[in-house]
């Protein structure tokens, strides 16, 4: 790691630097230099002097800084004198720049400042266009301006040659004052500067920019800073709507300013093409009642100190979002902070000590604690000492005193200057080593002149105000041999109190108050008369209190290359306290005690960044490479808040999207062009049917982001562990299993939770449908018919086994008949593609058709599928009169088109909390719903096999969720849907659409006695039904929802069917008779993918059919089950209307009487 420097300024204006390879602060060579503030960058450090001038310190390097000055000598040919510098009035100047617009004679060039020197005299550039020339450097042309060449032609009437002179920067390693602008008026006096911009996101390693603030509140930008011109050239004023007190520029394109009213402003539009930005955006202070005191920015972080010395971190800051999104309170009381390289944070504490923020990493930019900068001060004390006195300059001696002082009070003490920033308490109680002096009155401390130490209630005012400090020398102190029996008088200066075995009490006080306390205590000390002493001359260049370390007022880490993993000796929290000032030691101990007391809550910000692809859903729709960041903050009460950012660029303008994690309602993997994609839903995006779709490069990346986002969502909502017994289960058309934790408000008659606010989380697995009940039993069926039982809720640890599923992928081969060749793949121009999907809108061939996602793999070859609705001929063809109409399995004279379906199986393997229930493949399953307080030893489970057989599972219980065996229930035809409701009501639908009710089902007779035929609605064929506690709902082939009227305990078959709504593909009825469906589409969004979760509102004992629909998340949802949600909310006596139905209701249909029983 290269050696870099940390810069700091004390309250006296002295500038110190600390090397990452050293252990001591080194003061600037120029002892007369006094700076107010410094701002460091890579290889340089800027400062503002007490004279309000700007200073620059360039780090020494092996490569010298040289600048080439050049000017052109221009001549014109005339018949008398040939080429001469006598030009036409319309020509350029005889000596000019390359454009000829500006005169540049040789004598007009001067050194910009005393930091430069000429390397030599002017000389002619003998090369033309980079190649040596024999013409003395002359270039010829027909006229000005034109293209010059070294070849002289007969029509060459003008010529020019370039003169060059180099100047070299000689002030590297020293503080050099940059020159004033001439003839422009300089922006002085300046009160703050900030260096940044050397890591612009568009181009890394660019030279830095310099910003300044004048005392009038104006913002200035230093132009012309270049590797060959480190000082820059001129100042340019940047318009600002309010007066600015302080500013901070980051290494990238961030610039924040602090206003005099305590608010903040952000400069937007900073780029390489526009280094001064375009506009200002105001940001409020972190606390409205407390104004901001200081601001500092990094690459993507912003830190602020308020006037109560509290530290704040701005979350969500990025090049695309320079204003950020919110404030986070950080522990510690600081007077100023500075963000250096790698976004590391340095600070000046309220005790005037220097601190470093531990644990700052790209993933945790707020760090996790403050540690003091424990470097020692460079020893500058000089004087004359004799053999009887030893003068110590080290920090350890100045803090604790010499070892001899601990053992004997009569030994000669070590003399040390008093520290104005540290005042010992209880000085009268501490033993004071006595001294005898020859003249007590002349040596009295109260007669000595006291230097003025600046102190102010306002931190900014104290930094920018001038001070008048008179350098003084310490008075001489004399000492004589003691006479026998003579008592020792107290010393005229305050020694450091030392008490072995006891901690020295220290406190933070104002500097002026410290000096006053010191003078008052010194005035109360008296010296003995008649004593003689040997004289010691104590001459020092140090000011008051320097031996305890400088009292810091400013720090800049912009040039200090450290990070959280750096091994720096003076940044170790285990560093001995002897290297700290007493105030720092006390503050450090207090901080450690506070952290131990509050170890259970730690304020922090955690960030995870990455690169994904985003499906831009406005025209032109396409995949866009974006940067993403998940930012999580921990509040003071332990709560965590997260924001997900998506950064993109549109027309060279940086923009961003953000999603609050507590607003996310679902994270769903989706199928998009073979990408590893997932969709992020919020309530607003559900209403707009506009999810945020992102894709990762690999399956691992997608799973990591899904897991990370899902964990943050659950953490924000306090959801932990496996799904509860009352959870709602659902599956998507892709096979993903989703679950929602219900609340009482979900089924409340008043203030019902909106469907689009429901939070769905994914459970590992791949299933076609899932059913549950309130006892915690969950069964599912895969696409290959395998039955699975959920095992994540049982045992001490959730079990996770291998979960597989197989599904088929279909493509259709289409042909049209013509009289010459019969059926061929030559269709009409208006026909569908000859190889397509089922709809015929998308071309799908066997070659370009892939598994649903990269997680799937082929397990078979393409084959003709003969099991197609409508039947096929012996070759698998289906016939129709034209595309698209209903196809049938036999050819007629009017059939001019035909198609056949090709199928290929693919398999997915993953791990999930599911156990298979072999060996019979199933198509439907139903668990008996029950109320929350119900207890059952055996839970009735009914299912249908892939052949349509009715099965009853025996031995199912919460302790044995998989049961023991299947019991076959006889039927005279295959069934396609079955459901068991409250009181062992079993309803089923045969494959021909006939409805049956199973009678006499009870715990003693789980299979029942016989089937009762229930007439179907007129001219409708039912395909799926669901039975609740007291109600039955069914869906027909035309997506109509029907309700069975007249159900009573004495007549459980009901009396008639009533049409409720259309646009329904599946229905589920819960133990509270709540009704949920999968809607075929959402009104107003015709392009939405079929399959949306829908809730029937207004369902109650007096209104079992409900009143209206509430549409929730949608776009590819296959199944939903609410049969486990038995958490009943308190119901008002007379529920009101829930609003106007969102689905059109047809006229009331005719009713039908119930049919007769059919014995089996």
TrEMBL record:
The keyword Membrane applies. Residues 392-499, 1123-1160 are annotated as: Disordered. This is Tectonin beta-propeller repeat-containing protein 1. Belongs to the TECPR1 family. Residues 606-716 form the PH domain. It comes from Sparus aurata (Gilthead sea bream). GO terms for biological process: autophagy. SUPFAM superfamilies: PH domain-like. The keyword Repeat applies. Coiled coil: none annotated. Residues 64-125, 137-170, 804-865, 876-909 form the Peroxin/Ferlin domain. GO terms for cellular component: autophagosome membrane; cytoplasmic vesicle; lysosomal membrane. Keywords: Autophagy, Cytoplasmic vesicle, Lipid-binding, Lysosome, Membrane, Repeat. PANTHER family: DYSFERLIN-RELATED, TECTONIN BETA-PROPELLER REPEAT-CONTAINING 1B. It comes from the Eukaryota. InterPro entries: Beta-propeller_rpt_TECPR, Peroxin/Ferlin, PH_domain, TECPR1-like_DysF, Tectonin_beta-prop. Residues 1151-1160 have a biased composition (Polar residues). It is found in: Cytoplasmic vesicle, Autophagosome membrane; Lysosome membrane. GO terms for molecular function: lipid binding.
């Amino acid at each position: 790691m290269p050696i870099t420097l940390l810069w700091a300024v004390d309250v006296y204006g002295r500038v110190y630097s600390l090397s990452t390879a050293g252990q001591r602060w080194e003061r600037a060579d120029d002892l007369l230099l006094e700076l107010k503030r410094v701002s460091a960058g890579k290889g340089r450090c800027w400062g503002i002097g007490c004279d309000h001038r700007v200073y620059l310190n360039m780090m020494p390097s092996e490569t010298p800084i040289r600048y080439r000055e050049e000017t052109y000598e221009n001549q014109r040919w005339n018949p008398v004198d040939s080429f001469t510098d006598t030009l036409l009035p319309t020509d350029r100047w005889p000596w000019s720049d390359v454009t000829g617009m500006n005169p540049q004679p040789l004598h007009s060039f001067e050194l910009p400042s005393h930091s430069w020197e000429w390397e030599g005299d002017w000389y002619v550039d003998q090369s033309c266009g980079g190649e040596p020339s024999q013409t003395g450097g002359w270039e010829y042309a027909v006229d000005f301006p034109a293209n010059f060449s070294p070849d002289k032609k007969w029509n060459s009437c003008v010529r020019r040659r370039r003169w060059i002179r180099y100047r070299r920067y000689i002030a590297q390693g020293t503080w050099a004052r940059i020159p004033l602008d001439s003839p422009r008026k300089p922006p002085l006096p300046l009160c703050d500067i900030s260096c940044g911009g050397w890591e612009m996101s568009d181009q890394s390693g660019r030279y830095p920019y310099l910003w300044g603030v004048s005392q009038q509140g104006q913002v200035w930008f230093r132009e012309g800073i270049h590797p060959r011109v480190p000082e820059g050239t001129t100042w340019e004023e940047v318009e600002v709507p309010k007066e600015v007190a302080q500013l901070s520029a980051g290494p990238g394109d961030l610039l924040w300013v602090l206003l005099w009213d305590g608010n903040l402003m952000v400069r937007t539009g900073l780029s390489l093409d526009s280094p001064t930005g375009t506009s200002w955006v105001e940001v409020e202070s972190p606390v409205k009642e407390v104004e901001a005191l200081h601001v500092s920015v990094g690459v993507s972080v912003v830190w602020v100190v308020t006037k109560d010395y509290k530290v704040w971190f701005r979350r969500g800051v990025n090049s695309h979002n320079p204003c950020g999104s919110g404030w986070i309170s950080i522990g510690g009381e600081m007077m100023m902070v500075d963000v250096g390289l790698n976004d590391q944070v340095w600070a000046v504490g309220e005790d005037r000590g220097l601190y470093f923020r531990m644990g700052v990493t790209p993933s945790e930019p707020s760090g996790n604690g403050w540690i003091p900068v424990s470097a020692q001060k460079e020893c500058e004390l000089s004087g004359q000492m004799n053999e009887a006195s030893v003068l110590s300059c080290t920090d350890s001696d100045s803090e604790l005193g010499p070892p001899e002082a601990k053992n004997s009070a009569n030994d000669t003490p070590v003399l040390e200057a008093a520290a104005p920033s540290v005042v010992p308490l209880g000085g009268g109680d501490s033993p004071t080593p006595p001294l005898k002096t020859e003249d007590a009155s002349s040596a009295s401390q109260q007669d000595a002149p006291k230097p003025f130490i600046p102190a102010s209630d306002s931190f900014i005012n104290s930094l920018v105000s001038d001070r008048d400090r008179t350098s003084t020398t310490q008075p001489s102190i004399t000492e004589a041999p003691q006479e026998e029996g003579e008592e020792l008088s107290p010393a005229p200066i305050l020694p450091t109190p030392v008490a072995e075995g006891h901690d020295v009490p220290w406190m933070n006080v104002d500097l002026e108050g410290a000096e006053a306390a010191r003078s008052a205590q010194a005035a109360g000390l008296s010296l003995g008369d008649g004593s003689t002493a040997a004289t010691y001359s104590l001459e020092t260049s140090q000011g008051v209190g320097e031996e305890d370390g400088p009292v810091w007022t400013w720090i800049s880490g912009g040039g200090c290359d450290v990070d959280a993993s750096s091994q720096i000796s003076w940044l170790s929290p285990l560093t001995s306290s002897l290297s700290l000032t007493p105030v720092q030691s006390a503050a450090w101990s207090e901080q450690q005690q506070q952290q131990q007391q509050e170890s259970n809550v730690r304020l922090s910000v955690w960030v995870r960044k990455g690169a994904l692809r985003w499906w831009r859903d406005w025209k032109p729709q396409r995949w866009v490479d974006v940067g993403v960041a998940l930012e999580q903050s921990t509040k003071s009460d332990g709560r965590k808040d997260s924001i997900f950012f998506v950064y993109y660029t549109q027309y060279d303008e940086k923009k961003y999207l953000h999603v609050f994690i507590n607003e996310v309602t679902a994270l769903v993997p989706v199928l998009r062009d073979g990408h590893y994609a997932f969709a992020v839903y919020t309530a607003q995006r559900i209403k707009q049917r506009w999810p945020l779709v992102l894709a990762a490069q690999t399956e691992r990346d997608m799973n990591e982001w899904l897991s990370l986002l899902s964990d943050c969502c659950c953490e924000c909502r306090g959801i932990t562990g496996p799904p509860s017994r009352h959870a709602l289960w659902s599956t998507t058309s892709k096979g993903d299993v989703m679950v929602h934790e219900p609340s009482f408000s979900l089924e409340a008659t008043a203030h019902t939770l909106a469907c689009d606010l429901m939070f769905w989380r994914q459970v590992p697995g791949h299933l076609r449908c899932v059913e549950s009940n309130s006892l915690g039993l969950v069964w599912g069926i895969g696409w290959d018919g395998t039955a699975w039982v959920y095992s994540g809720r049982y045992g001490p640890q959730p079990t996770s086994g291998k979960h597989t599923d197989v599904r088929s992928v279909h493509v259709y081969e289409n042909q049209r008949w013509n009289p010459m060749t019969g059926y061929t793949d030559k269709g009409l121009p208006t026909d569908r593609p000859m190889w397509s999907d089922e709809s015929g809108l998308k071309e799908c061939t066997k070659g370009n058709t892939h598994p649903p996602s990269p997680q799937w793999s082929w397990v078979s070859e393409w084959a003709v599928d003969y099991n197609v609705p409508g039947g096929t001929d012996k070759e698998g063809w289906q016939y129709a009169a034209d595309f698209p109409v209903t196809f049938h399995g036999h050819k007629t004279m009017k059939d001019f088109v035909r198609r056949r379906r090709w199928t290929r199986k693919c398999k997915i393997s993953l791990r999930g909390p599911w156990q298979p229930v072999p060996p019979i493949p199933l198509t439907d399953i139903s668990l008996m719903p029950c109320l929350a307080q119900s207890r059952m030893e055996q839970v009735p489970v009914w299912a249908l096999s892939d052949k349509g057989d009715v099965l009853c599972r025996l031995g199912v219980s919460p302790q044995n969720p998989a049961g023991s065996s299947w019991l076959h229930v006889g039927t005279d035809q295959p069934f396609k849907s079955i459901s068991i409701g409250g009181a062992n009501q079993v309803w089923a639908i045969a494959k021909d659409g006939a409805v049956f009710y199973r009678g006499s089902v009870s715990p003693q007779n789980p299979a029942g006695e016989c089937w009762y035929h229930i007439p179907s609605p007129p001219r409708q064929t039912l395909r799926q039904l669901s039975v609740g506690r007291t109600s039955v709902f069914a869906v027909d082939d035309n997506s109509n929802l029907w309700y069975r009227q007249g159900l009573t305990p004495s007549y459980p078959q009901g009396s008639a069917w009533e049409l409720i709504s259309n646009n329904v593909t599946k229905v589920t009825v819960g133990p509270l008779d709540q009704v949920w469906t999968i809607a075929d589409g959402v009104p107003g969004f015709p392009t939405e993918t079929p399959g949306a979760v829908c809730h029937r509102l207004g369902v109650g004992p007096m209104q079992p059919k409900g009143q209206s629909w509430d549409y929730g998340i949608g776009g590819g949802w296959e199944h939903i089950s609410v049969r486990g949600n038995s958490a009943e909310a308190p119901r008002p006596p007379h529920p009101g209307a829930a609003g106007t139905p969102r689905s059109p209701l047809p006229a009331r249909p005719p009713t039908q009487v119930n049919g007769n029983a059919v014995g089996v």
